[in-house]
Predict the structure.
Amino acid sequence: MRAADLVEPFPTVGIDDDAMDAARLMAEQRLVGVIVMDPDGRPHAILPGSQLLRMVVPPYIQADPALARVVDEGHADQMCARLAGKRVRDVLPDEKISLAVVEPDATAMEIAALMTQSHTPLVAVLDGDRYVGAITASGLFRRLLAVTA
């Protein structure tokens, strides 16, 4: 099985897109993260949902999660308002999470090894400079388990 057989369409956001729109995309499509594209349309990084949450949870609660209990639900429901006016580039981690990339002829074992090495459940597939889609760990397992059964 090759990457070309495993690749699926996977949503992307531009580095200058609205961060709130990225959060909406993750919510609507039940994604754990999205691929961030640079201005030239090439994959740049991964924006994990946990990073967006980091931007909306106040720093004092991140430092002491027990303080989360003192925030009333009305204020908690408005957490995402902290994303207003921010671009995706503003919410990327300081230490960019590099995107693992393979070509369409990469094998399933190469993809699995890359996911393991890079600690990411998401690998972009590029055909030359053209973004084709992505392979997720869950998608890889789905295909490998179907062959095993």
Summary: The mean pLDDT is 88. The chain has eight helices and six strands. Residues 47 and 133 are 16 Å apart (CA to CA).
